[in-house]
Amino acid sequence: QVQLVESGGDLVQPGGSLRLSCTFSGQPFSLFVMGWFRQVPEKEREFVASITWNGGKTFYADSVKGRFTISKDNIKNSVSLEMTGLDPEDTAVYFCAAPVKGLRSPDAQAMGTMARANAMYWGQGTQVTVSS
Fold it and tell me: Phi and psi of 75, rounded to 5°?
C-alpha cells in the first residue's frame, strides 16, 4: 500500500521561502510520477507541479512557474517542492500526490484528470500560510 507523508508546512512572510518534502513508501518509488497539489477551503484541489519518474522533466502551474521548483530523489524515496517569492495567494494545504498508473507526460491537464478520476495516491497535506 502506497503511503505519502508530507512535512515542511509553516507560517512564512510574503516574499519568503519554504521547502516541502514528501516521503513515499509501499511500492518502488523510482517508477512513479510525483506531484504537488494545493487546496483552499471551498475550492477544488489545484495542480501545482509534477515531475516524471526519472526526474527528467518537470511541469508547473502558470501561477508558480519561476518561483517553485519540484525535485525527486529516487535514492531517498522523496519528492520536494522548493517555494520562493511566496505570496498570500499561495496560502493553502499542500498535498503530495502520485498517480496510480504511469503518465508519459504528467502535465497539469493529465494530473488533473487523474485527480478527478480518483486515480491518485494522496498524502495527508501540510499547511502553508503566507502572511505578515
Answer: -90, -45
